[in-house]
Design brief:
The chain has 273 residues and is mainly α. It contains 10 helices and no strands. The termini are close together. 42% of the residues are buried.
């Protein structure tokens, strides 16, 4: 089986940021919390590869730690979506057309009516801005996404012969959902997971940009962009490198999603062959 080129390129791009995030736990070129006013707003050079910000902090080091923040928020938010949304979708499909199905789908519509940024603002108004509240807001928005994916994939499987045979053999709906339905929709969930991962990074950057994400002194790509907006005319590197980090990380995840779809979807695989 040939691995799609988009999957290789996407994995390489995202792997670069994942490696930087893991490395930042052990080492960064400079301390991201240390201020060096004498070195403020220095352009990229041999010492500070990406330059410094208005406090003299090394931008390359901040991007490394910012990758850790963005990836951690996106991972937990996607895990919340999969962990809660998938069982809801499977339960709704198992009772297709029933009361539970109607409750789950109308609940999904209710959550979709409020964008993640609005949900984050509501949560922040009650509990205050933090990375945890950003995770909760993005995770809540992911739940109906995975619920719909799981339900749509499962509904089409419940009418197949091997599912009917399992029901005749005496297996309950819960056991069938776990043993037969879930493995056959795993490819859909994996592909959607990479898409939501990239959207989670964008959402975290957006929330940090407006001050609702990770709080200082924790570096965040979105807040780095917010800090640079008044200095972009004479220190464009402050906006350039965090912006490129967001673009490349999201591009890598989207390419991974396309590659995984081509690799896991049997219809696309047969068509390409």
């Amino acid at each position: 089986m040939r691995v799609p080129r988009t999957l290789i390129i996407g994995a390489a791009l995202f792997g670069m940021f994942l490696a930087a995030a893991l490395l930042s736990y052990l080492w960064t070129p400079f301390d991201v919390t240390a201020l060096d006013i004498a070195a403020r707003l220095r352009p990229p050079g041999a010492v500070h590869w990406f330059g410094t910000d208005h406090f003299g902090r090394d931008i390359f080091s901040m991007i490394m730690v910012g990758a850790r923040t963005s990836i951690a928020v996106a991972i937990v938010a996607v895990a919340i979506g999969i962990g809660i949304g998938t069982p809801l979708g499977l339960a709704a499909a198992a009772r297709h057309g029933g009361l539970l199905d109607e409750i789950v789908m109308r609940g999904n519509d209710l959550v979709f009516a409020f964008p993640s940024l609005v949900i984050a603002i509501l949560i922040t108004a009650v509990f205050g801005p933090s990375a945890l509240n950003a995770i909760i807001a993005i995770g809540i928005f992911n739940i109906p996404v995975f619920a719909r994916i799981a339900r749509s994939g499962a509904v089409s499987l419940w009418t197949l012969d091997y599912i009917l045979a399992a029901r005749v053999a005496g297996k309950g709906r819960l056991r069938i959902s776990i043993e037969h339905i879930l493995p056959n929709i795993a490819n859909l969930l994996i592909v959607q997971g990479t898409i939501q991962f990239s959207l989670g990074i964008l959402a975290e950057a957006a929330l940090s940009y407006v001050g609702l994400g990770a709080q200082p002194p924790t570096p965040s790509w979105g807040r780095m962009l917010a800090d640079s907006q008044t200095m972009i005319s004479f220190a464009p590197h402050m906006a350039l490198f965090p912006g490129l980090a967001i673009v490349l990380a999201v591009l890598g995840l989207n390419l991974m999603g396309d590659g995984l779809r081509d690799l896991l979807d049997p219809h696309l695989r047969r068509w390409r062959q």
